[in-house]
User: Fold this.
Amino acid sequence: MRKSLAAALISVLALSACGSGDDSSSDGASAASCAPSSGPVSLTYTTWIPGIENVVKAWNDKNPNIQVKVQTGPNGNGGTYQNFFNQLKAGNTPDLGHIEYDALPSFRVQDGLFDVASCDIVAKAKDQFIPWTWNQVSFGEEKTAWGIPQDSGPMALFYRADLFEKNGIAIPKTWEEYAAAAVKVKAAGGYITNFSQSDINQFAGFAWQAGGRWFANDGQQWTVNLTDDNTKKVADYWQDLISKKLVSTVPPWTTEWDNAYNSSSAWTWVSAVWGANSIMSGAPKTAGKWRVAPMPQWSAGENVAGNWGGSATAIFKNSKHPYEAAQFALWLNTSEEALALLNKEAQLYPATTAGTKYSYLANPVEFYGDQKIYELFAEAATQVTPDFTWGPTMTSTYTSASDGFKAAVSGQGTLNDALTKAQTSTIDTLKSQAIPVKE
Amino acid sequence: MTQTLTAAPEKPAPVPASTGRAVRHGRAVPFFVVPFGILFVLFYLLPIGYAIVQSLYTVERTGTFGPAREVFGGLTQYERVFQDGAFWTSIGRVLVFGVVQVPVMLGLALLLALLLDSGLVKGRRFFRLAFFVPYAVPGVIAAIMWGFLYSPNLSPLKPVTSAIDFLSADLVLWAMANVVTWVYVGYNMLIIYSALLAIPAEVYEAARLDGAGPWRIAWSIKIPLVMPAIVLTTVFSIIGTLQLLAEPQVFRSFSSAVSSTYTPNLTVYSTSSIPNFNLAAAFSVVLALTTFVLSFVFLRITQRRGDA
Assistant:
């Protein structure tokens, strides 16, 4: 018994020694190099883009020496980020990973990402991207980039044209009109929308539009501000709709949620451009009945859009072939061939300036009654204010806010209570990670 | 199943005989012990040791994006654990869950085992299998299936679920208790049933000669004799209750009432996805200790009663 204990102890000590050894070496390896490899290379890429296999196949067919193996998983906060964090800890990340803009700081703070700006091909491509999307991967710094922008998520109002017309309800142009329409929709037996209680990103998009700014980083320390006046205004607005039971509150991204749209119980969805795909796959029975209009405004006559999501293709620090990974990521996110495929498979909206002008984006979309929806999103993309900064522990911020939002839709507390709690818990999380934060 | 059962609770093993044999088969002992020993160390002691080591570290960094350095932090993480109200609330929650669910489940298991053993039912083999089948359904699948059954809009039992919201804050804990009971009642029944089968027939004969009816035999002979099996299943259930993860994790997407810190293991999970592995390790160690203490206390109480 004593012997086995000693053996266990020795191995534990050995293990922890390995652990600290790894850490010190990773401290030193910050000088990144991005040189081409010799010989054939095979890369791994993890993402959750629907239909990505077909896009990657197009690359593999043409690049026999750089073969990409794609692994698909659940959406980021649904599990893939946790896998990435675990893989980082274990040192076996894929070469490339799909990371949304809001999660990039979390991965950077965990020292998991390769600085792609050190690859000359990426540095040269910088100007191809819409400035604010580049800003999301460079965090406003001159010579760094923690991923290659893939898409953006300008928001607009998806609505059931048939139901609005049948009931003589005007399409709301402002949030005030939207709330008024909610009352009429309820009277007609529906809900104007489903409030996303556990996916906080949508709410973040609302706050973004209203001028809320949740995080700031002055280089010395972070400032957390989940409860600024603009965010509070948005929270009060939705709390009012929830309290009056004018919106349904089924959990998002579930069968029940699909059902709410498919069964015509929910009439609108203020969502990002990629949401076009969610409705098409989740509510096939409603084909042809949806249209898209600009996002409702806080003041009549304004033209401000929020942004929900948008992703980068990041290269993990452990990748042995960052140069080839960057080549693939650039092709994936800047070439007309790949962008057209990504749009066809997943309704992604490109992050490059040239991409927004490609002809396929002018095509009418059958599901939306042949409306040219991407023209509308192209306009929304120009109305997104570019200076939104994400915090370095978004997983925790979202989890905490979502706990509170879920309580609020069950009648315990309000959305603003939830944000206040998320504010405290975010600051606690930052402190427990030794990330400097202003209290 | 019978082997583990009879091996664990039956104390009065013939000690001298076994030591005698151990000497004669000296070489065979390591042969049989080493494979187990290696796996035990690799997949049990090492992870626990690693978690303990991790829990003693804390992170330091400079600047807003400075790389993290792990430094020895003593009991810093444990200080956070003990200050974390949500964690202790969740321990209280699973304890309430256990106090109600474990007796109900084991009572049902005992009842079913006695019924199968009584000879009153026909098709004993069929029922034995039928009761056990839910255990063969993976826990996550079972939770998803019940989640849909409870769902107010998608359930096939919509008239019931739209009247009673099983996924509301008041009921969701008991909705999960039902899932856990459904999955594990057959498993526990099988353990108790095999203990019943191990009771020698002479005991029943003697009881019948003394004029005991079926009720009396069940109450005064069967139940006391399978008590060790019941104690064993109770300990398993206490451990299982404190470590509830699959059901609440699945129900998070069905119900607004299940938060990210609903059970202790969910707290560990969401802490590790921040990612804050050190704090998650400290949570795990405290949870393991709590489980150990509770199981130990329960065993002490039941053993003392047995001695008296």
